[in-house]
Give the backbone structure.
Amino acid sequence: MATIKYLIKGKSEFTAIYVRLKDGRNTDLTASTGYTIEPKYWSDATGKVKQTASNKEKVNLAYNLEQLQRKIIDSLNDDKGKGIELNKEWLKDVIARYKNPQLENSTSLLIDFIRAYQIYLKTKTNKSTGRITSESTLRNFNTTITRLEKFQEYKKKAFTLSDIDLTFHSDYFKFATDKLQLSINSIGKDLRQIKTVCLDASDKGHEINKQVESRKFNSPSEPTIFVTLNEMEIDRIKQHNFNLENGYLDNARNWLIIGCWTGCRVNDLMKLTTKNILLTPNGKKFIRYTQNKTGKQVDIPIHSDVLEIIERLGDFPRPISDVKFNEYIKKVCKLVGLTDEVNGTKQNNKTHKKEVGYFEKWELIKSHTCRRSFATNHYNKLPNKIIMAVTGHTTEKMLLNYIGETENKHLDDFFELWDSSKSEKNNSITLNQKSI
């Protein structure tokens, strides 16, 4: 017999309500309903809005959840008989059709176009790499959908393509800043994806608001604040003696060092084995792997610190999950003594929002620190093109943005020229004075 239960995840003002459907042994599906609630009005025990929440908005929410439950049960009974596959996408579709009955026939709703664009991306291949869109890119659209659902709940309106204009742009920016407390870059990513979807819909013959094509419908951004580990700090981490009972930290420390000297993203890093080690014609060892995100083959010379770890262990360290890696390397850096306060961004565990401020450095260390440290430590020591061959950036502008630098090498050339000219001019004056 099918059972349906609602639950919430998080403690923020706009906490999402999820629905879980179980039907026999093979069907166990969970999806966001698109509705939100303040946790104080929610009962975890009953999986319902508290009866004490008597204001009109909460009463309407309770009613909608009851009706949605009936919609899911009815759809389940109908579609099982038709042999339709019951998966998470099916459940999302049922929820979407309940909240927007017009979807039963046709739709002009923005969120539906975003979902359709996701499906399109799954089959689209990159012209240069021949690879399909990465899962991380597809997940970014899910995040935008979730935020849009909260915005629609707040505005009590389902936005269509024709609604996406400069007023929407400013209203969404204000909502995402004030209510969701998102960073400028997160808001910019949402607006960039919305604009992309609208333009794609226009290319396919759908009518959109022309204001979305305006330069004013932009994607705001601000410089990213991040921390890196310099060579002295990497050496301190290398030299630290962990106790035997902290073997898991020693393992994480080894991965951290390897990450800093290879520039790998963490999902590529944890897949490295001795099979990735090859020899150059001169007999020197290097690492070759294919980036999961871009599909690009990357060759990296093996740094002596990396080689020492591999030879000592007889292989790469024991792979661990991204979550554990992020957790353990913070502990590693704290034990090593990286406690100076530095400016950075850190997620608040209660609000789940990023906060800017001064924190002890170990608190800001995460998997991406490895990759940024590699790029930063080699910048100005090697030509940018060589660094890009390892990081996978396709333009120097991308690399410079990544490490927070601006292209200003031309300044040194000017200073060198002007200092040289000034020196020659002074020497000429001195010689003329002597001749007099």
User: Anything to note?
Assistant: DSSP finds 15 helices and ten strands in the chain. The mean pLDDT is 84.
